Every structure is written in structure tokens, then in C-alpha cells.
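Two folds, back to back.
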Amino acid sequence: MFEDITERKQMQKKIKIYQEYLEELIKELKTLREEREKGMFEDITERKQMQKKIKIYQEYLEELVKERTLQLKEANEQLKKEITIHKEYEEAIQKSQQEFATLFKNSPEAMV
């Protein structure tokens, strides 16, 4: 999924922007709910319109959360794969270093 660090950083930046957008929508939804609860909407028509708007926001937010959750799961899976590969490389390097050290110690001639 991520070809390099730049692509990963770009994805992280997009996710952060996406998260800020979601937080702003949630704030707006809370404000709408608070206003509704305080009885600021005297007109029943206006109240119904706001309820529809709230329902639309809730559905939209639920969809955004699902999408973001999927993106985060995919990113986590990719990171797990990268960590596994990195560990395999690290183990291979350590094994190679140990083999080299053994050869050096067991060499009859001094190496320069």
C-alpha cells in the first residue's frame, strides 16, 4: 500500500485532515443539538428541518467513521507488514554479522 515514507506521510496528513473535518462536523452537530435542547427552535417547521439536518449529519458521520476506520485498518495492516519485513532484515543482518565474527575468530591468518 505505501511505497515509501513520503506516501505514508501523505496518507497520515490526509487522515489528519479527515479527522479534523470529522471533529468540526461533530462540533456542529453538538451545537445543533444544544440549541434544540434549549428550546431555541420555536417554529415547528424549523425544528423539523433541523431534525432532518441532524439525521443527515449523523448518517454522514457514521459513513465517514466507517470509511476512516477502514483506512486506519488498512494502514495498520501495512505497517504490521513493514514491521515484519524490517524485523526479518534485522535478523538476517545479525545472523550475517555472527557468521562473519565466527569466520574471523576461526581464521588461521590475521585479517587486515
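---
second:
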Amino acid sequence: MENIVVTEFCRYLKEEKNMSENTVMSYYRDVRLFNSYINSEGYDVLGAGKLQIMDFVAHLQSQGKADSSLSRCIASVRALYSFLIKNNAVKTNPALDIKLPRQVKRMPSVLTKAEVESLLECPCISSPRGIRDKAMLEVMYATGIKVSELISLKLDDVDADLGYLKCIQTKNVRIVPIGRCAMNALKNYLTIARPLMANPETVTLFVNCNGDEMSRQGFWKIVKEYAKKSGIKQDINPHTLRHSFATHLLENGADLFSIQEMLGHKDISSTQVYAKLAHSGIREVYNKAHPRA
């Protein structure tokens, strides 16, 4: 029963809700974890109730799971039962009244422009791998696209003449401008490194050392490696480049709505957090300028 429910739920998310592969996998891991726990307690998905779900949440808390992970798991279980209601497998959603942990919104970490320069200049471009790494880092900072979008890019998503990338996520297509430095790094990769690295049948733009599609984990390792080599002290990840892209644009006079479009945010409130980051230096300006600061 478990495998059928999980399989059908994931099929529904992918085919009917048009969710991306990464999103579906996130739901899959959560509901599989939930199934595994309630099975160990002598229940199945169809027979579990609110009490069993609360026990599951308590179990996750005892393992030290972060509030963000707990919230995601509860949301996944809710979605599972909504799917079962839709298919007349259960009558009510036992996860509906489970309260989500209250999360403290943290400001995203951002690199200084000097740190970005140091990071982008770190890869050694005398090797195919270094050329690829530089191109990926340059494209990430130049466009602010998500990691999932970066590794999903295909060869024909690049318009080198006009300087644009085409990002496709499920049914949404977004055209993103790419700057001169990043395009030069990308052209260098396409003409020198990629022909030596990619398998002939691979249409993905960025490939790993085996010639296949680059994974999210693979790019995370690349970012971590060069952050360490360039002497960046803070703990950064690929999202840091996206945050830095948006913040630096705002600092240089770009408007929120243009940045919203480039980032692919549906709601302007998601973009407004960068306005706070861009103005976080206001105290420093005040201290330097005010005679009695």
C-alpha cells in the first residue's frame, strides 16, 4: 500500500500539478519518512490520524530537525492527505490542524563586491574543469538564477549573440540577460572545455567530470571549494550568489520590479528583502557623515 500511495502521489505532483523534479523529490523524501515512521508504529497512511502525525513531528524534533524541516514535512503530509481526499481514499485531512513551527526570518547572507571578485577569479582556467567552474560561477552571479535552473540549462537555452539565457521551470519560461564577463567565460567553456568533457549525447549546458549532467550537490561542492580557496570567512552556498546579485543591483540603482522579473519572483514581497540588505550600510553612511554621530 505504501509504495502505491507514494508512487501515485508523486505522479500526481509531477503530471497534474506540473511540479519540478527537485520539488517532487522533496515531497517524496518527506512522505516516505512519514510512512516509514507510522509503519514502525503499527499504522498505515490510510489509518493514521492526527495523534500519529503529532507523534511523527515529535519524533523529528527529538532528532534535532530544524523548524524549517519540520514545516516542510508537515506541509508534505498535508499535501499527501489532500491528494487522498481528492481520490476518495480518506474523508478528512488529519494534518490540517497540525501547527507549523514559528520560524524566524533570517536575512540572506550576501558577499561584498570584493569577495565576489575574489571568488570569480579563483578557478584556474588552464584546465577544462577550471574553465567550467569559472563559467558556472560567472553565470550564477551575472544572472541570479537558481541552482536548479543553472544545472538544467540546455545548449540551446543560450543566446550568445543577444546575451540572454532562457530559464525553463515546469511551464514557466523566463528570459534573463547575461553580462559581458559571464558570456565571455561561457563562450570559453563552450569552445574549449565542454568539447573535452561532455558525452556526445548530452545536451545539458554544464556537465560533470564524467560528461553527464551536473548535480545540485556537485555545484554546491564547487562553490564551497572556491569560497575556501578565496579566503571567504562566512559559510556560503550557491544561493549566496543569487542574493548577492540582487543586492548589488539594488545598490547600483536597479528597481525592485526589474529585479523581481530577473529572479522569477511571483510576489514582490520576496524581492523586497533585498532592499533591506541594500540599505544595511545606512548606519555606516550616517556615522561618516553626521557631525555628532
